[in-house]
């Protein structure tokens, strides 16, 4: 086996760059929403780090089964998949625009990931993946199908949830704490959803993550939801949100609503099935081995600064 628990000659685990995260919960109500994962009409001839390396949308059908629409998108490829409107219905959603630092652009490395009926997306860099692979044990082979640090992080959360009887919040805390204490870390920002719940973690302070507890009709009342990201170029619209509340998590403020607030470093937020929102500082201390841009390989550093 090679250094990261992969066969000799296998690709090095990919570390995801300055990705854009989006999560939304209207639970227990299922709502219709339209997603454009890559709305901006950038020229396909402009091949630069401003162009995403993958887009993905995750949600749940009426029977609670996870559904994922995703594709690796590069500057030199047809981006029609990402620019096409996705009409979906769910009580929870997660979307992701990925900027990869290394490795091939493949579906298996594109967020969101699915494990044990949950969906997950991550923004950041974790190194020392040989130690993480060892920590995962059998879960490496049963849950991890691609080359990213993100999917391995998710697998550690899934393993911890299985061990603790299904407490996802505690599993996120345990997994993130172990990584923060033992591995070099740049960022661990994440969104994880089930059919009726959403969790979001910001750690450490490297990348921002915002939450909006949106009342029915939004800031001015009686208005549908219309969110539009500048950097990730993600757009979401829901006519149902003129009468229903929602919890929205994103890598940036998506409109001028004054209710947006940044999560604190180490803050773990949970939106439950009845719109109750709780949060706590799950990781109070900084990483034992923090990474800076200067510590990253040039392509990884470039992707972290892409936005």
From TrEMBL:
Pfam families: GATase_4 (PF13230). GO terms for molecular function: transferase activity. Keywords: Glutamine amidotransferase, Plasmid, Transferase. PROSITE patterns: GATASE_TYPE_2. The keyword Iron-sulfur does not apply. The keyword Transferase applies. InterPro entries: EgtC-like (IPR026869), GATase_2_dom (IPR017932), Ntn_hydrolases_N (IPR029055). CDD domains: YafJ (cd01908). It comes from the Bacteria. Residues 19-274 form the Glutamine amidotransferase type-2 domain. This is Glutamine amidotransferase class-II. The lineage of its organism: Bacteria, Bacillati, Actinomycetota, Actinomycetes, Kitasatosporales.
């Amino acid at each position: 086996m090679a250094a990261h628990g992969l066969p000799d000659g296998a690709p090095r685990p990919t570390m995801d760059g300055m990705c854009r995260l989006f999560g939304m919960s209207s639970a227990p109500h299922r709502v219709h929403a339209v997603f454009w994962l890559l709305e901006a009409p950038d020229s396909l001839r402009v091949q630069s780090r401003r162009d995403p390396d993958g887009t993905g949308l995750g949600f749940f059908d009426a029977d609670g089964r996870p559904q994922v629409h995703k594709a690796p998108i590069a500057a030199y490829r047809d981006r029609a998949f990402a620019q096409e409107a996705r009409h979906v219905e769910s009580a929870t959603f997660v979307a992701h625009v990925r900027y990869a630092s290394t490795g091939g652009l493949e579906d298996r490395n594109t967020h969101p990931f699915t494990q044990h009926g949950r969906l997950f997306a991550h923004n950041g860099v974790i190194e020392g993946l040989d130690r993480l692979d060892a920590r995962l044990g059998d879960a490496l082979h049963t849950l991890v199908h691609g080359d990213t640090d993100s999917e391995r992080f998710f697998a550690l959360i899934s393993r911890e949830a299985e061990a603790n009887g299904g407490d996802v919040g505690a599993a996120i805390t345990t997994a993130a704490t172990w990584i923060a204490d033992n591995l070099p870390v740049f960022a661990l920002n994440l969104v994880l959803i089930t059919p009726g719940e959403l969790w979001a973690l910001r750690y450490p302070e490297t990348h921002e993550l915002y939450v909006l507890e949106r009342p029915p009709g939004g800031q001015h009342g009686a208005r549908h939801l219309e969110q539009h990201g500048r950097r990730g170029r993600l757009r979401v619209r829901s006519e149902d949100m003129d009468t229903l509340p929602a919890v929205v998590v994103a890598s940036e403020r998506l409109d001028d609503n004054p209710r947006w607030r940044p999560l604190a470093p180490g803050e773990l937020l949970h939106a439950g099935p009845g719109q109750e929102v709780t949060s706590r500082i799950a990781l109070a201390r900084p990483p034992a081995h923090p990474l800076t841009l200067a510590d990253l390989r040039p392509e990884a550093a470039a992707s972290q600064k892409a936005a």
